[in-house]
Amino acid sequence: MDTLLQFLGLILHIDKSLGVFIQNYGAWVYAVLFLIVFCETGLVVFPFLPGDSLLFIGGAFAASHEMDLFALIALLLIAAVTGNTVNYWIGRAIGPKVFDTNIPVLERFLDRAALQKTHNFYEKHGGKTIVIARFVPVVRTFAPFVAGVSSMSHGRFQLFNILGALIWVLLLVLLGYFFGNIPFIKQYLNVIVLVGIGAAIVPVAIGALWKMSRRNSKA
């Protein structure tokens, strides 16, 4: 429980935590950012991680010369592309049965409502979903999984995957680089982080409550 609370504290105050981490551990901060972005995009059980806020804050730290801008962009691009690729292959391995069958390991952690919503979005927009979803918390995590489940060809998936990662990483990191240290934005950076986390957590919470209400109604 203490570890979980510490992790939540780290995420909620990522703007301050990242600065402290850089002072104490230096270049290891790149590994931490890589891991967070990889987990958010690569594992369907981590849709709540604040990828958007993290990219923006990373750009702000690069502007103050505490991180190298080009190394940051390169690592985040690799994390975003490889994370989505892993997620895609997990979806391919499980297949369409994920929509029809209760898989015990997944049911405990999977937000089925968000998964179905992403699937419906994918059915409507096809490969563009992989690009658009980069900017939609929660959907970002499920989009490559759904593409794999739907058996999108790997080559076509990678085309949209790389394009989406380039736009997402470059846009948010450079926004942080050019605007993250403006006094007004810096003052309310924690609010920006909270909004980003809220956008990711609220749909998950609604899905969990909906699932609980259905169970209670059947009992």
Task: Characterize the structure shown.
This protein has 219 residues and is mostly helical. It has one domain. Helices cover 79% and strands 0% of the residues. Helix 2 (14-25) crosses helix 4 (51-63) and helix 5 packs antiparallel against helix 10. The chain is elongated and about 50 Å long. Residues 49-177 form the VTT domain. It is found in: Cell membrane.
List the helices and strands and how they pair.
Blueprint: H1 2-12, H2 14-25, H3 28-42, H4 51-63, H5 69-94, H6 104-107, H7 112-125, H8 128-132, H9 139-149, H10 154-179, H11 183-187, H12 189-218
Alpha-carbon distance between the two ends? 30 Å
As a percent range, the share of helical residues equals: over 70%
**Which regions are unreliable across 5 or more consecutive residues at pLDDT < 50?**
none
- Note the main sheet: none
Alpha plus pi helix count: 12
Brief rundown of the structure:
The protein is mainly α and 219 residues long. The protein has twelve helices and no strands.
Question: Which features does this protein show?
Answer:
79% helix, single chain, mainly alpha, membrane, cell membrane, 219 residues
